[in-house]
Amino acid sequence: MADTPHVIQTHQLSRLFGGRPALDGLTLEVPEGSFFGFLGPNGAGKSTTINILTGLLAPSSGSAQVLGLDVETQGLEIKRRIGVVPDGLHLFERLSGEEHLRFVGEVYGLAPAEARRRAGQLLEAMDLSADSNKLVSSYSHGMRKKLALSCALIHEPRILFLDEPFEGIDAVATRELRDLLQKLVASHRVTVFLTSHVLEVVDKLCTHVGIIVKGRLAACGTLADLRRGADGASRS
Asked: Is-above-0.70 flag for pTM?
């Protein structure tokens, strides 16, 4: 994918907490249309990276661009063009699933009729139509994950950021979400940036992988390239 533009670029990106680096000179490029898995143990800096790229956290030094926009000076424009499913779900418990989706759509500037139309499509795609009039407070954890993903998709973002999206959900919900994400990347050229500490998740989903350890990038490339490198290292 040498000629493919990069939708995420960071250069020597660092973030300190209490004088200690959570990110330490991270230089990273994510190709457009890829399913990019950002892999590392808990505390490696995965969530810190997502928080900087999505405008929730300022870097201590270095630079980052999303869709060619600077995260520090053009954060609002970036937010209009991305979707985010954070590790901790923050949903409005006293709204129904449909009301929640329509509300989020209108916050992103969709006309009420268009927000209603897209909400209906997403609820059907996520197999939530039968529960669309139930309060979010009654939803299972897997249903909440699917609703959160729907909220992130309703404005048709160009990049989807997912922070540990399969954490705490059962095998059936994991498989459903995995299939939906694969179809999304294949059919709409949406770039997915997914963090995980579970290698199996990345192995089944991702075309490209970055591995972060103690705030530093340890390896990055296509999944095929990293597999070949690992095979070569194991034989030597």
From this structure: yes
CB atoms within 10 A of CB 166: 21
141-153 and 171-188 helices, crossing angle to 10°: 10
Sign for the CA dihedral angle at 122, 164, 32, 78 comes to: positive
Q: For residue range 67-82, what is the model confidence (pLDDT) as tens digits?
A: 999 999 999 999 999 9
Torsion angle, alpha carbons of 139, 149, 89, 73, to 10: -160
The pair of three-digit structure tokens given for residue 140, joined into one six-digit string: 């299972």
Q: How far apart are CA 209 and CA 202, in angstroms?
A: 8
Q: 6 is written with which tokens?
A: 């990069």
Q: What is the pLDDT of residues 2-25, one digit of tens each?
A: 467 899 999 999 999 998 999 999
Mean pLDDT across 131-137: 96
Q: Measured in whole angstroms, how far is the alpha carbon of residue 178 from the centre of its chain?
A: 13
Token pair of 58 as six digits: 């300022």
Amino acid at 192: V
What does each C-alpha distance from 64 to 57, 123, 159, 222 come to in angstroms? Answer: 12, 34, 15, 21
Residue 58 amino acid letter: A
Angle between helix 97-107 and helix 141-153 axes, rounded to 10 deg: 30
